[in-house]
Known about the structure:
By secondary structure, the chain is an alpha+beta fold. It is built from four helices and nine strands, in the order βααβββαβαββββ. The chain starts with a strand and ends in a 22-residue tail after the last strand.
Amino acid sequence: MYTFDQERLSDNADINSLLDTVFGPDRENKASYALRDAVAPVHELCVVVRRQTGIAATIRYWRVSVSDLITNTSETALLLGPIAVAPDVQGEGVGSALIEHTLDRARQMGHERILLVGESCYYARFGFLPVLPSFITLPGGRDARRLLVRQSARLPSLPAVGKLEPWAEAQEPRAIPPQKSLRPAFAV
């Protein structure tokens, strides 16, 4: 039995341990981590999946800026990630349920453009498409070929030439207060 729950400050060590297990200790060298420096995650979208033995999965979202290098304008978007599922429960649908839950919540909050760095063959089922042929660079020029987007049809396309940057209105991370469970327990 699993339960969706708001991430708490006391979960930080368990989440970092899970992220190290899933992505390796050098995970912070990825381009997507440079977009998170000095920017607080979107608290309402930082969710964990709990089980009796601890955290089974985690997901976070961050505000980022998409700059158009031709028009010199920028727009805010969300960056999904990291998402990690404990190896012993991978393949049980926990990650998919977590993604669907938080994407629905992000939509309800009014977020219409969500980006992530990942594999198109996995994330296409959630409505993510490759950013290419637009040329959007990430910090350090890494992982740009794996940049995916999910956005409302009402929004204009991403810029033809642009870059993804940390959110311009960076703020200090704040403590995450304890919250009630977001949803009753579920079985997958």
